[in-house]
Amino acid sequence: MAKHLFNVSKSNIARAAIGATIAASALVGHAVTADADSATGVAAATGARHPDTALAAHEAGAKSETKINVTADQVLALAKAQVGTSENAYGGGTPYQKWYAASERAAETIARDGGSRAGYLNAAWCSMFISWVGDQTGARPQIGWDAWTVAHAKWFAGNHRFGDAPKPGAVVFFSWSGSKSLDDIQHVGFVEKDNKNGTISTVEGNTGNGKVEERVRPKWQVVGYGYPEYRA
């Protein structure tokens, strides 16, 4: 599966790399290889420098002007239809990475983080998967789009749509250590349901051996949930 690095600057702000190309342009700090979690066999998510608050304000304004026609069920249906999609031997080749690399958003995150469009083609893609589902269903203003899980979570938080209750269609952010800090987020998926037994069922990209899969996760690994504004 796609692998990636975390780098922490002296100001203690996470700045990590997206793929080999973007890694070369990130700040040098304390590097930690983020490989599959020993308990779950799941890769951690790509890092970058910081969320762009200006874009969050722009997206929030776009959302307020957009009629909300997409339901949580529609988003989950498309996400689940992707189950089984797999990356290639180089950690790339998915439609989500190709779409993101060619998107307008890629230009914005390259300006923020450095690197090139080609760097996204083999980068960790769990957040790209979430972004792709949002775009394809017409729910992008509600779901947001980013390649970095931390920035994606902070976008929800900046729009006052982040909390600790699992809801179907919510975007769930994980830290395998159990940290509740947004800066420690390593992975992301969609909540399918709360199992009411300390676990949630999810749909995730870039999990297992680099596939889209349905998983069951313990809640203690959850940092928090982003809440898209769906049509009831």
UniProtKB/TrEMBL annotation:
InterPro entries xref list: CHAP_dom
Domain Peptidase C51 as annotated: residue spans: 101-232
Name listed for the protein in its UniProt record: CHAP domain-containing protein
UniProt source species: Nonomuraea purpurea
